[in-house]
Amino acid sequence: MNHKIALLLVEDEPHIAQALVFNLEEEGYQVTHVESGEQALEKLSNTPYSLIILDLALPGIDGLEVCDHLRKQGNQIPILMLTARGTAQDRITGLTTGADDYLAKPFNLKEFLLRVAGLLRRANWQPIHSDNILYTFGSNQINLETDQATTANGTFQLTELEMKMLRFFFDQEGIVLSRGKLLKQVWGMSPETETRTLDNFIVRLRKYFETNPAKPRHFRTVRGRGYRFVQNPE
Ligand code: CA
After folding, report:
1. What count of other Cβ atoms lies within 10 Å of the Cβ of residue 4?
2. Does 50 score more than 50 pLDDT?
3. Ligand 1 centre from 84 Cα, in Å?
4. CATH topology of domain 134-229
5. Distance from residue 192's CA to the centre of ligand 1 (Å)
6. Which helix H or strand E contains 209, and what residues bound it?
7. Which of 7, 98, 105, 207 could potentially form a cystine with 84 if both were Cys, beta carbons 3.0 to 4.6 Å apart?
8. Domain covering 6-120: architecture
9. Sorting pLDDT into bands at 50, 70 and 90, what band is 185?
């Protein structure tokens, strides 16, 4: 393997970590090992990994919090959760928080390696959670795979251009986007192009998704600067 798959291992027990690192490296993976949730989040903020192996019980921020934090950020990296507490409730909590798979300690190393390989394989061809493809704001839900919107007014199909615009807003959530930038990103036009096209488009999105289109809470106008999408208005 020329290009090694990079994995992040978050485990505070040295002997377990050592054994996992050894075996993963034997399999040809490149492993970064950290001992706390804080270190994990720091690593993840500046390095891309293909998978996280995350111990549940950690000092400081625990595995569930790390998971929850990543998912709330929209980070869809596959997560294999490790725990000593193999109860059904823990399993449910872990999976609800956004872990993709779960392994209770003590586990068989062979099974562990199979789970890792399985998660990496699945991540390559489909979203692991059906939740991953749903984007929710207010009472609206957008299916990013089928381009369907479900709102207070029912379910309907969005056009390609509407989806392009929504994806851009979702990616840049909370950030003020100038009209020029939106036109360029969504229509691929030069910023000199008719901005009324864009303004009409925003009117349409507000009609679809705002409870009161005259007082938008999600698709906001920022006077003199452009538009800003807010997922969860206060
Ligand atoms: Ca631990």
Report:
1. 12
2. yes
3. 8
4. Arc Repressor Mutant, subunit A (1.10.10)
5. 57
6. helix 195-209
7. 105
8. 3-Layer(aba) Sandwich (3.40)
9. confident
